[in-house]
Amino acid sequence: MDVFISYNCVMLLRAVTCIFFFALFPSAMAQTIRTDGAQVNISPTATVVVPGSLNIQASGGVLNSGVVYLKGDWINNGSGLVGSLPGTVDLNGVQSQFIGGSNITDFAFLRISNPISVNLSNNINLNQTLIFSSGKINTGPYEVRMISAPANPILGADVNKYVNGNLRVAYNTSGSSTYKYEIGSNVYAPLDLTFNSVTVAGSMVASTANGASSLENFPTAGASGIISTSRVNRHWSVSQSGMVFSSYDAVFDYSNSPFTGTPGNYQVRRYTPQTGWQTEVSVSNGTNALGVTGDGVFVIGELTNTSITEGQSITPMLAPNPSVSYVNVSGLSAFGNDVRLAIVDLLGREVWLSFIQNTDTLQLSFKEMHMKPGIYFLVAKGNYGLGAARLIIQND
Asked: Cys-Cys link to 202, which of 65, 187, 243, 247 (CB 3.0-4.6 A)?
């Protein structure tokens, strides 16, 4: 049977903590613990072990400054975790556990220590940090939400420990903001997003799935332009809510996914309902997409000859290259009247950006741009085409 924690035992719990409660009622050790109308206070020095499930009902809630080790399910039909206290909830069962209930729980620190799985039956919010010790979170149609901006990094994720499903991250206004989405599906396939010039705060949710996207054959067969035998066997989806930004750079990790063909020829294609399939400026074997201006579905692979309908691949001309102090860029008019010109380092980071109008030739001064010696890519994108050229800046 369930064990009920009612209002009458709240003062006892506050005085002796829940550990003492379990010692008083040893027969409850494997049962569901219910907090009906109780506000349970767990002090900073307390460690509470719940061998069954924790069922929060009515106006019940938990004020957690300590650590709760939970073997069963977390069911929140009440107030959940209240008081914005920096406690940790550790799900360390030996069979599948669920986080759910009719109300969303705001966790401060949530640790996943279940090698089988932790599953969501509602969204969950993280105010502080998500920590992986073992196992995954399977979100299904729900979301793990990092609701504080800037969001804390997710700790401990690797090939066996990640968010299997939807991860939403909040962003505030900033010049630049980077976050690593520790996501995967059948394998670990994280995504790094770097936003440039966020002017309105909001959030971005990302997920990834094995295999081709169903949209790759929309509106006609082969619409994505990716060759089925020369591709990454995976796709990523991102969708923003409320954000206003100039662009973002995406870094896709497909090192754990099957891929075929020649990665050196890979391109990134993105689908949106507004524009259909389009090619993004990409470098580093298709792992980096640069200057992306909206959300959508991303796929990576080699392109068919007729796949680029919105613009051809064009290479800007650079001279002198290598160079010490400046470079002349020519052939910009082939990209269109309005050209986005960026310099990207070998890590895929955009270190310089400008928008050029009605210009074919341009001289760039490395001193004025505050560019350091090194190897970069100069990336041009316009409504007629896109392309990148290697740029080498030498020491004096």
From this structure: 243
Buried b (16+ CB within 10 A) or exposed e, 306-323: ebbeebeebebebeebeb
Tell me the HSE value of 139 on the side-chain side, using a 13 A CA sphere: 24
Which candidate, 68, 44, 23, places its Cα nearest to that of 3?
Answer: 23
Read off the amino acid at residue 286: G
Q: Coil, helix or strand for 23?
A: helix
Question: Which ranges of 237-390 would DSSP assign to H, the alpha helix?
Answer: 366-369
**What whole-number distance in Å separates Cα of residue 136 and Cα of residue 118?**
6
Q: How confident is the model at residue 306 (pLDDT cuts 50, 70, 90)?
A: very low
Q: Which helix (H) or strand (E) holds 389?
A: strand 385-393
Both tokens assigned to 169: 């991250």
Q: Which structure tokens are listed for 173?
A: 């206004």
**Nearest to 179, CA basis, from 194, 164, 168, 167:** 194
The residue ranges of every structural domain in the chain are: 1-135, 162-310, 312-393
- What does DSSP assign to residue 306? T
Q: What is the DSSP letter of 346?
A: T
More confident residue, 349 or 27: 349
**Separation in Å, CA 32 to CA 1, 41, 107, 204, 364:** 7, 18, 20, 36, 68
Measured between alpha carbons, how far apart are the two ends of the chain, in Å?
79
**Would you tell me how many other CB atoms lie within 10 Å of the CB of residue 143?**
21
pLDDT tens digits for 285-299?
999 999 999 999 999
Calculate the dihedral angle through the C-alpha atoms of 48, 52, 57, 59, rounding to the nearest 10 degrees.
0
| CATH architecture under which domain 312-393 falls | Sandwich (2.60)
pLDDT of residue 221: 84
C-alpha to C-alpha distance for 336 and 215, rounded to whole angstroms = 29
List alpha helices for the chain, DSSP H.
10-24, 366-369
Q: Could you tell me which residues come within 8 angstroms of residue 286 by beta carbon, excluding any fewer than 6 positions away?
A: 232, 252, 263, 266, 267, 268, 300, 301
E strand or H helix at 207: strand 202-210
* Residue 99 pLDDT grade (very low, low, confident, very high; cuts 50, 70, 90): very high
